[in-house]
Design a protein that fits this description.
Blueprint: H1 18-36, H2 38-42, E1 51-58, E2 62-72, E3 75-84, E4 91-95, H3 104-108, H4 116-121, H5 125-131, E5 135-139, H6 150-154, H7 161-170, H8 175-192, E6 196-203, H9 208-219, E7 225-226, H10 253-256, H11 259-264, E8 271-276, H12 284-300, E9 307-312, H13 320-331
Parallel strand pairs: 4-5, 4-6, 6-7, 8-9
Antiparallel strand pairs: 1-2, 2-3, 3-5
């Protein structure tokens, strides 16, 4: 049962003019970094992450590269990089963090034939992006795949989120913060290799991938747009009201801010909130009420049209159509080669 406090969060949005809004964003972003444990992670990362390309596969309509990045000492994150066929050229970048999927990045890259998560939930998000003409990165989140504990690998458990979260908390960190950090290192990698247009970096993923998308965009202003799916709601009515994976919890977050405030750190950058009408773990009534508060932030920022809400008619899944319409408008992709055409 959720313990409710009718008191106001310390840094909930209350600005009435643009200078106050900008000061609020700076203050909350700093506090959020501390709550996520970003400072703790930064303190042990003093070198450029090492990377390694393991395999390149040329498919009918794109190239899929299998990479590894050591995002912090001893932590290796596998990721796929997908790029359109043809000579290398600068293109928009779409990073697609996954949620609690047994096949995680492999599903997002479309690497599994007849994958039910693609058929039923349109979760081949990185493959969708490359087919729209963009460069896509599909990372494996910490606590999944080879990063699971030996016990969880033996039992073929989906993830080791609880174990990772418990250990992270002992060092003043959180698993959300670590996944945000890994995503930031992937942005570093992409920009250093001059493969992407720095003016067009978008994050989109479903469920836990929506979590990483939202928090990374809130923390890292190099992210120019975001389209989190089936995550945005209120903490009180979702994470705090029913059982969720341990990776969702941030100590003291409801003393600091609500989810609309976190999303408000993205303003005035374009943000598409995607939700499912019948999503049982992110109730739609709370999505709507939270979005109304978020819209107030964007309105004060002078960008009400850059904050949009799409509600799919189904449940907890990805809805690709609004995302790529949103991206096309942002990226002016009529100038790009859509390899489906």
């Amino acid at each position: 049962m959720m313990m409710r406090d009718n008191g106001r969060q310390q840094l909930s949005f209350s600005a009435t003019d643009l200078p106050a809004l900008q000061l609020w964003q700076q203050t909350l972003r700093k506090k959020l970094r501390e709550s996520l444990g970003i400072h703790s992670i930064t303190s042990r990362c003093h070198t450029t992450p090492g990377t390694e390309l393991l395999e390149t596969v040329t498919l009918d309509d794109h190239v899929r590269e299998d990479w590894r990045i050591e995002s912090e000492p001893g932590i290796v994150i596998p990721f796929y990089l997908l790029r359109p066929l043809g000579p290398p050229e600068t293109r928009p970048l779409v990073i697609t963090p996954h949620g609690h999927s047994r096949n995680h990045r492999h599903t997002y890259a479309g690497a599994i034939p007849n994958d039910p998560e693609v058929i039923d939930g349109e979760r081949d998000i990185a493959r969708q992006a490359v087919r729209e003409g963009y460069i896509a990165i599909a990372p494996q989140a910490r606590a999944f795949g080879d990063n699971r504990s030996d016990k969880n690998q033996k039992n073929n458990s989906v993830s080791s989120c609880a174990e990772w979260q418990h250990r992270s908390l002992m060092f003043g960190r959180t698993l959300i913060g670590e996944r945000v950090w890994d995503t930031m290192k992937l942005i570093d990698f992409a920009l250093a290799n001059k493969m992407v247009d720095p003016q067009h970096i978008m994050l989109t993923g479903n469920s836990g991938g929506g979590t990483t998308s939202l928090f990374t965009a809130a923390i890292d202003e190099r992210v120019t747009s975001a389209a989190p799916s089936c995550y945005f709601c209120t903490f009180a009515d979702s994470i705090g009201a029913m059982e969720h994976c341990a990776c969702n919890y941030i100590p003291g977050i409801l003393n600091l801010a609500e989810m609309s405030d976190i999303a408000g750190l993205i303003a005035p950058r374009p943000l598409l909130i995607v939700a499912g009408l019948h999503d049982p773990i992110f109730p739609i009534h709370a999505v709507r009420s939270s979005f109304k508060k978020l819209k107030d932030i964007y309105t004060l920022a002078g960008a009400p049209d850059k904050c949009q809400l799409y509600i799919g008619k189904g449940g907890h899944r990805y809805y690709k159509k609004p995302v790529w319409s949103f991206a096309k408008e942002l990226f002016n992709s009529t100038t790009l080669t859509n390899i489906n055409k």
